[in-house]
């Protein structure tokens, strides 16, 4: 029986579609998220957001077939009281990326273990500082968690 979950994270996991190398003489163009790629700096940011997205989707598929329902939704200026992130982030107004996904065999999941201490690229569009640029699924530094939809 399949189940639907929602992932919440403070890391920028924007799906940009930027997977090829930077070409300096290309005219400015938008990525899939609508961000304008006009130089190496904007390309690097967009590519790193895509890298984070790719890492998340690979982790979701470690134990069972997981399918995203759409793409991550970015919500800026969120109050900490409305989320279950670690206490290190309790005094922040932050940006949250949210992704709904379905899994075919939820009994095989161990999301908290699979998503702990996984390195991601930070300092993209996050509104928080991570002392270690990795996912943390528990404790005071928790920056990713999951909820099953009922």
Class by helix and strand content?
Answer: alpha+beta
How would you sum up the global shape? globular
Share in helix: 10-25%
Largest beta-sheet details: 5 strands, antiparallel
Total count of domains: 1
Q: Write down the overall mean pLDDT.
A: 93
How many whole angstroms does the radius of gyration measure? 16 Å
| Termini Cα gap | 13 Å
Q: Which parts are unreliable, with pLDDT below 50 for 5 consecutive residues or more? A: none
| Structure summary, number of beta strands | 9
Q: What is the N-to-C order of secondary-structure elements (H for helix, E for strand)?
A: EEEHEEEHEEE
User: Helical element count?
Assistant: 2
β-sheet strand percentage: 25-35%
Please characterize this protein's 3D structure.
- The radius of gyration is 16 Å and the shape is globular.
- It has one domain (3-149).
- The strands form 3 sheets. Strands 1, 4, 5, 6 and 9 form a 5-stranded antiparallel sheet that branches.
- The protein has helices at residues 40-60, 111-114, and strands at residues 3-9, 29-30, 36-37, 66-68, 73-79, 93-103, 118-119, 134-135, 144-149.
- It is α+β, with helices and mostly antiparallel strands.
- The chain contains 2 helices and 9 strands.
